Write a sequence for this structure.
């Protein structure tokens, strides 16, 4: 192992209390079989998965429940064997708090696997691996839930992939699922890194980890002692070092703009849990049916659980001893970027990396919101070097075009600006609103354009039809010139007479 | 006296030439105003404005034959945009032309439909599928919610259903805080 | 609170703590001021503070804003202190009251209150006083009469009759008038009024306070450093060109409100620029204007006018100095 050179520090960021030791004192626990499984069809970025089962079906563990609809989508599998109870709208963990389509399965307790088979991944090419992964249901397990198969390609041909980065920064406070995974499944992680390394054909693999995870760092250092192409790079604990583009800059010194992907620069990045999921799928054939969730915060016994997807969150919270101070508020994700759950009657999804039972200071009415004093602390803290105070001004006064001009869409909503604001302005909320509004406007404009086209087409069509009709009439009029006319009348008369005869004959028959 | 007159004449001529040349050289070939107006209109093609579609209404506005406040689906926002574009004063929506409604799509009750094709002929964006004596269906994605298909239907089998908020089309709301009165006022 | 969203945790900084720190860091300068020039300045600071709080309270009530929240942000007090420290300590009380009222009511609240004022309120107050009462505003307490408390008090309470007994010109003013009399810089510099070491000690006090502000990250280095360096460079260049006409840099750095301005006045966030490059440009602009007004202008001290003029340019400065967004070319 090489001792690593330079860390490229990005602008801004914050050092918040990490509060990670709340959930790292006990090892990961298998949660086991829940009383029911609720699988939302909306668990990933992209199109909803297409249903493959119907109510009453019996499914086996690992059986396909819904398949990916197109390329930007991910499959969903049964986490255990049992009967499909219902397919209807249920509450899902989503910031909207609105229900969405879910498949509910009643476990039969046998936990019987469907036949799964490992892939001989060394023998097949990347394209085939890609196709297989489309059916694996694996998405980015760091919380973004971006379908993984989309990231397993060579990138642009001229600069093929050179570096694989393993995102082990886990920069958000409270969250420890990746940390615990690295501690307990170190070897599996290294095997997974080697696998992805080989599939992608990269030159080096770099694990980027924050310096507060000393146990994992020690274990990993030991595990990669004899690996030539795997490096460990320790980055300072500054939020948001785990953001993909910030981490790439920290490790490689390359600033990738909003409009471009890391693969355009020869870099691909995966979260540690995703690496292990890919490994388990290709090596053993196991699809994505469980994940590790940090259950932490204001609870009697906070810890990390390995749970089946679709497990009702309430059962896990109960297992963790329930809230110490009752306020019934739970946050999914970290305290910086997560969202308040509508209720704990929601299932575990692929994106659920952490559940924080709200500490009192998170739910109490925050300090009053004061006017912006333009102190620019937000600009100093912004890791994207935006001018949050300007964006705030434009978003608040709904000058959306100006907000866009000031690069609103480069904002990663990391929350650093809100964190440092001495006037307690909920800056990110304004950016979310402005972005939503602009996106909706764009969609409406697009729809209006389609409607305009269709309307114009229709008017053209009507005109054409009218013209055609006129032409036909003219033609007919021309044809029916003098002699033809008499002929035609005679023919018609004859036809009528024939018809009458037929009717009479018919009447007699009856 | 004479020199000053000459100077003024000379200056006038010079400036005139400069202006003339620049007006030829820097001529802006913009969208014709009708297209610009049309791009603001919501393209519902509902005819509530009193014209047979959005383009005719845009033409009428451009010719001064219609006011900017006759489009209920465009709402207040649309009127503001038109006022900005044309450099005229904003006016509230003219109630004669109807009131803004939540965005809806038409849904045909498939049991009642007799397949008369009258609605198909009425639809301005060809969003209804079907043929004579066969049940008709509306392509939900293409429906602009213009309600033009409602009056021709002889059996009243078409309903307008507002588009519900769901996890797909849901969006973040404008943050509301009590205290910050001073800046709230500036916004409005 | 409707739709509570992330982030759910928050740092500890608040407008109140920032403003309190500014007040605290003004104390070293204030103490040295009292030590060298007597208690007059303290009376001025007190009367300005009371006026500011009172005016703020009334206006907040009229505007129907929660008085408690906006009074405890201490911005009004900071404005009052900065104005009081800029006014000569022997000015009569109504000068201070008038200036403070103008700063709070007109310069701050007429523009929309905290966060919306285009101009530095304290400097608007100062400029109004300077234009209206130039005679009083350019006379400084003569430190040799510091123990003449009775006289100071009588002047403070309204009598300006005996003004000249304890007042003297400020060094900047003195330099200006003496140069007009035909003396050269080195002659003037040797005279006691121009070597007012007491005044330089007060500047030193503000400098110490400013360093604390920098260390506690209440302000960034951009404004004070650029301001002082620019003033140093310009003063040095002119002094090199003609040492008989132009005072050396230390005279400009240590006299007048240079230090107070560098760390406390031009660093006002509301009326200043927000981008790093913008701050640098803003400071250069102010320093240049200060020098030009001091040396070539009609007033002995030019900070207030320089700041107000630079405030006008802030929107443009901000717009033109936008930093590069991460990953943008």
């Amino acid at each position: 192992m090489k001792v690593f050179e330079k860390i490229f520090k990005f602008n801004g960021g914050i050092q918040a209390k990490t509060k990670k030791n709340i959930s790292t004192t006990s090892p990961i626990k298998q949660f086991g079989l829940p009383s029911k499984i609720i699988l939302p069809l909306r668990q990933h970025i992209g199109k909803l998965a297409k249903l493959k089962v119907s109510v009453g079906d019996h499914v086996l563990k690992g059986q396909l429940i819904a398949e990916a609809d197109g390329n930007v989508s991910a499959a969903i599998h049964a986490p255990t064997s049992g009967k499909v109870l219902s397919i209807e709208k249920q509450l899902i963990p989503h910031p909207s708090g609105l229900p969405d389509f879910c498949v509910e399965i009643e476990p039969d307790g046998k936990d019987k696997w469907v036949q799964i088979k490992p892939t001989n991944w060394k023998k097949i090419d990347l394209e085939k691996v890609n196709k297989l992964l489309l059916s694996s249901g694996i998405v980015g397990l760091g919380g973004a839930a971006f379908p993984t198969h989309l990231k397993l390609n060579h990138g642009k041909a001229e600069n093929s992939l050179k570096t694989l980065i393993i995102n082990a920064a886990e920069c958000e406070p409270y969250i420890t699922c990746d940390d615990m995974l690295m501690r307990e499944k170190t070897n599996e992680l290294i095997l997974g890194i080697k696998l992805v390394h080989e599939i992608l054909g990269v030159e080096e693999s770099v694990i980027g980890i924050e310096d507060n995870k000393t146990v994992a760092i020690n274990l990993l250092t030991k595990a990669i002692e004899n690996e030539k192409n795997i490096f460990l790079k320790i980055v300072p604990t500054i939020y948001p070092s785990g953001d993909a583009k910030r981490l790439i800059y920290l490790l490689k010194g390359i600033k990738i703009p909003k409009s471009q992907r890391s693969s355009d620069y020869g870099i691909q990045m995966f979260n540690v849990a995703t690496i292990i999921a890919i490994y388990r799928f290709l090596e053993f054939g196991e699809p994505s049916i469980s994940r590790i969730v940090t259950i932490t915060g204001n609870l009697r016994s906070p810890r990390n659980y390995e749970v089946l997807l679709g497990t009702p969150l309430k059962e896990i919270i109960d297992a963790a001893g329930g809230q110490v101070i009752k306020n019934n508020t739970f946050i999914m994700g970290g305290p910086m970027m997560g969202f308040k759950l509508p209720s704990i009657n929601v299932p575990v999804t692929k994106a659920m990396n952490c559940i924080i039972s709200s500490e009192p200071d998170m739910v109490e009415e925050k300090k009053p919101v004061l006017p912006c004093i333009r102190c620019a602390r937000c600009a100093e803290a912004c890791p994207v070097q935006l001018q949050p105070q300007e964006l705030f001004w434009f978003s608040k006064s709904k000058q959306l075009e100006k907000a866009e001009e000031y690069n609103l869409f480069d904002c990663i909503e990391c929350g650093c600006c809100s964190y440092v604001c001495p006037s307690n302005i909920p800056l990110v909320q304004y950016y979310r609103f402005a972005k939503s509004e602009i996106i909706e406007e764009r969609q409406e404009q697009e729809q209006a354009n389609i409607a305009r086209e269709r309307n114009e087409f229709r008017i053209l069509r009507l005109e054409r039809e009218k013209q055609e009709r006129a032409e036909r009439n003219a033609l007919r009029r021309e044809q029916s010139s003098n002699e033809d006319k008499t002929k035609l009348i005679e023919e018609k008369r004859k036809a009528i007479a024939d018809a009458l005869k037929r009717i009479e004959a018919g009447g007699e028959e009856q | 006296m004479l020199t000053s007159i000459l100077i003024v004449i000379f200056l006038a001529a010079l400036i005139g030439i400069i202006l003339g040349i620049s007006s030829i050289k820097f001529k802006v070939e913009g969208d014709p105003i009708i297209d610009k107006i049309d791009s603001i209109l919501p393209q519902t093609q509902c005819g509530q404005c009193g014209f047979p579609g959005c383009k005719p209404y845009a033409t009428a506005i451009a010719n001064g034959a219609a006011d900017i406040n006759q489009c209920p689906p465009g709402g207040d926002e649309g009127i503001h945009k038109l006022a900005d574009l044309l450099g005229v004063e904003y006016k509230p929506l003219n109630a004669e032309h109807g009131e803004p409604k939540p965005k809806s799509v038409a849904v045909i009750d498939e049991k009642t439909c007799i397949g008369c094709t009258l609605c198909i002929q009425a639809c301005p964006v060809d969003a209804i599928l079907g043929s004579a004596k066969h049940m008709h269906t509306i392509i939900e994605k293409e429906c602009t919610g213009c309600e033009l298909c409602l009056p021709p239907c002889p059996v009243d089998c078409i309903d307008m259903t507002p588009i519900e908020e769901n996890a797909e089309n849901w969006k973040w709301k404008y943050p509301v805080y009590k205290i910050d009165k001073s800046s709230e006022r500036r916004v409005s | 609170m409707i739709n509570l969203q992330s982030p759910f945790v928050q740092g500890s900084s608040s407008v109140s703590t920032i403003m309190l720190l500014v007040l605290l860091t003004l104390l070293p300068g204030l103490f040295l001021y009292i030590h060298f020039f007597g208690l007059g300045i303290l009376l001025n600071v007190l009367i300005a503070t009371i006026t500011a709080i009172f005016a703020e309270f009334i206006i907040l009530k009229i505007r129907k804003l929660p008085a408690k929240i906006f009074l405890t942000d201490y911005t009004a007090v900071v404005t009052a202190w900065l104005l009081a420290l800029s006014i000569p300590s022997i000015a009569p009380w109504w000068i201070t009251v008038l200036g403070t009222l103008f700063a709070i009511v007109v310069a701050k609240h007429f523009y929309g209150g905290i966060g919306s004022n285009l101009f530095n309120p304290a400097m608007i107050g100062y400029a109004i006083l300077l234009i209206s009462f130039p005679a009083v505003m350019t006379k400084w307490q003569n430190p040799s009469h510091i123990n003449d408390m009775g006289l100071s008090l009588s002047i403070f309470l309204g009598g300006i009759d005996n003004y000249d007994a304890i007042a003297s010109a400020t060094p900047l003013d003195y330099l200006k008038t003496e140069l007009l009399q035909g003396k050269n810089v080195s002659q003037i510099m040797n005279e006691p009024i121009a070597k007012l070491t007491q005044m330089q000690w007060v500047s030193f006090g503000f400098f110490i306070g400013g360093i604390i502000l920098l260390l506690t990250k209440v302000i960034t280095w951009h404004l004070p450093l650029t301001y002082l360096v620019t003033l140093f460079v310009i003063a040095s260049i002119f002094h090199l060109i003609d040492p008989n006409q132009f005072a050396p840099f230390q005279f400009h750095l240590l006299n007048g409100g240079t230090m107070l301005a560098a760390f406390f006045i031009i660093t006002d966030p509301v009326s200043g620029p927000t981008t790093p490059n913008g701050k640098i440009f803003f400071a250069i602009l102010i320093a240049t204007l200060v020098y030009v007004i001091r040396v070539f202008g009609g007033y002995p001290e030019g900070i207030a006018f320089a700041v107000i003029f630079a405030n006008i340019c802030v929107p443009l400065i901000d717009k033109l100095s936008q930093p590069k967004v991460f990953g943008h070319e």
Q: What stands out?
A: The interface with chain B takes residues 1-3, 5, 63-66, 69, 112-113, 115-116 of chain C (CB under 8 Å). Chain C has a mean pLDDT of 88. Chain C has 17 helices and two strands.
